[in-house]
Amino acid sequence: MSESALDALLGAPDVVAVLGRDIAVRLIDISKSGCMIHSETRLAEGTTGTLRLTYGGADYIDDVRIVRCQASNGGDGWYRLGAQFLWTSNPSERSLRRVIAGVQSGALHSVSFETNRQN
User: Fold this and answer.
1) Is residue 84 part of a domain?
2) pTM here?
3) For the chain, what percentages of helix, strand and coil (3-state, to nearest 5) are there?
4) Is 100 inside a domain boundary?
């Protein structure tokens, strides 16, 4: 891309950038409307992202919004995060909302949260 084309692109009034990062979290509780997760990373209320967990050998994903962030009691450096499921699309076969009844924290292999920041 030429320098002038790049300048034109970056100077456009509708440029949107999305930054993301993966954060390891621990699933504590889950319901039809959201879940409680623990993280060593503090996330601001209103942060949106994708929550992904592995259960029964399959990955399940849903978009969520952080609605609460509290430092855990005991000063261990963990944060309790309340995450609300977002209805950005109809739940697919791999939606967390579809596996709620069968999820048991002992059967989870990994859980992660990827933030989506729009600037």
Assistant:
1) yes
2) 0.69
3) 15, 50, 35
4) yes
Q: Which residues contact 110 (CB under 8 A, 6 or more apart)?
A: 53, 54
β-pairing, 58-71 vs 108-118, is unpaired
CA 8/CA 15 separation, integer angstroms: 11
The conformation of residue 11, written as its DSSP 8-state character, comes to T
User: Over the stretch 9-33, which tens digit does the pLDDT of each residue have?
Assistant: 677 777 666 677 889 899 888 888 8
Q: Which domain holds residue 60?
A: 18-118
Domains: count for the chain:
1
* Parallel, antiparallel or unpaired: strands 108-118 and 79-85: unpaired
Per-residue pLDDT tens over the stretch 61-82: 899 999 999 998 877 889 999 9
Q: How far is CA 76 from the centre of its chain?
A: 22
Q: Beta strand pairing status for 34-39 and 48-55?
A: unpaired
Residues 6+ apart with CB under 8 A from 59: 52, 53, 94
Rounded to whole angstroms, what are the CA distances from 64 to 12, 52, 82, 85, 86?
30, 10, 10, 4, 5
